[in-house]
Task: structure prediction
Amino acid sequence: MLFQLVSAQNQANIWYWGGNSGLDFNSGVPVNLPERNINSGNAMSVMCDTNGNFLFCCNAERILNRDGLIMPNGLNIIGSSNASMGALIVQQPGSDHLYYVFTVSRDYPDNNGMYYSVVDMNLDGGLGDVTSEKNIPLDRAWAASNKLTSVRHANGEDIWILTRNFKTDQWYVAFLLTSTGLSTEGVMSLVQWRDDNNNEGSMKVSPNKKYLAAAYRRHGLANQAYKQSLDICSFNASSGDIDILYTLSKNPNYWTEQYQPRAVEFSPDSKLLYITYYDEGDDKLMELYQYDMQYIEDSLQFKESEIFIARGPVNGLQLARDGKIYCTTPKHGVITEYLSVIHEPWKRGAACNYQANAVYLDGRTTNHFLPNMLLDHLYRFEWEGECARHPIAFQPNFLPDPVSILWSFGDGEISTALWPVHEYEDGGEYEVHVTVNYPSGRIEETSRVITVLESPNPDLGPDQLICEGEEIVLTAGSDTGFYAWSTGSIGQNVFSITVSDSGMYWVKVTNISGCSIFDSIHVGWFDKAVFNEDNLLITPTACGGSSGSIEGLVIEGTEPLTFAWYDGNNNLIATTLEISNLAVGNYYLHVFDDNGCETISDAYTITDAGDIVLTEVEFTDSYCSQNNGTINITASSGAGTDLLFSIDNGNNWQID
Result:
């Protein structure tokens, strides 16, 4: 499972750079910081904690703690403070106290390559210090210079550190930092040759992590290919591969060097790319241009999408925590005390609201480039979860807290909650658009594309009723995946199980993307036929005959009902409810209801009443021809108390 939501993104809220300049973005607007002796050239990276408190910084040559003092082991860092992006600080994934500091030098002949040092914030009483892992060279970047940037892996946790290696064979290289440390092997992407002399300029990955742009400004040799151009590349955040799509230049040919690219930056929604150029013409001013990223795959259309934004106080570019792009303002031979701002970088053309010299730095100065930071610290919002039909929680990173907010999730659904939770019915790509209203009246619009993974679709159907004793096959569908049933049956593509007991059954299906969905069903039994025996009369047979009967039963059940009587040998003997002419034995009534269910009674037993037993005979004689003689017979029979008798050899019968 991918977790885009990592923590509160306040690690980039403090900036130090240039001639002791400093800005604090914790309030949502840049506020000048008290002056500290944190002077740097172009190279600077700053790290804060998750609450936006300043921890330490590095200018590629020394590492300073939060008090502005050099860490005990923070001197003699191998790098150059004049490199365009000479320093980069990233926190080791999974650690709350270990940080990696990456450095490169400027250019030939001093491009000694890329190094890293580790800072442990538990050292020096919590002020931090450089460990014994200091100035460790990275062989795959032995000739790197000027270019350093970083972005999280597609898994949302690990971090790619990217640079460009020059000299002979040349390549981009991506090093992966994980919770276990830095992989020094690196992922190499071979590229065309560039001269390594004065290849200054910034390099950035788009917020959607699909593209990389790198500016190469150099001067000197005539007729040199690629000398004043940008690499426009695709980037794979899963593998670290970088593939050049094409080179971009404003110059008409290789021997013209009027327009020298200096800096690049993407809008927060990845829809626009901003590039600054140094114009070697008569005015020798910097110029700012905007390009439409929807045409990025086509070099001609992309170049034709170019819009001129401004000339003058623009130079280095850096996206900030407030969603604006800040521009350094040095021009040829002049250091200034201002930053310019692109207030609405998501808008096309002049609507981007570029403002020259918008932020005064309290008399302190700025060099060409602003602090280097992890791209992911600048996301306007993030999310946790990635599977369809599962809750996806969105985290806003807007400062200060908005007065109102409107989320459009790209599937027709909206929310005005600050921290919304949304479920997508289907997998796919959705553009989530957010409109934010701030207390100052500022309105910000931003968007990101979220990739929602398809979830399996197990469907056990509605609850079922079956006849007791019968079996039913429960089928969850045919989606490929791992099936885990409540009965303990598990395995790949175990689509169905057979059950006979009543109760609740469930299945969990997990597909190859790791998305899981449950479904459940209740299996019950139809009501059985009820045998009402309140008026039951069982008449036994007698004398070994077949005169028994079963009468008076009342059957309650789902009509129509049908009946079948079976003897003890399972022979069908009748299909009526009441039966007679029964011999001694056990009889069973089978009742069939309209649900197709069969209910079988317990045994009804016919017994034999047996022979008549004379237990006593008494005679009295008659006297005087009075016909008053008697015969008293005491007899018993299992057939009842009414007996027939005859005293004339069976010619006449009487009942007693």
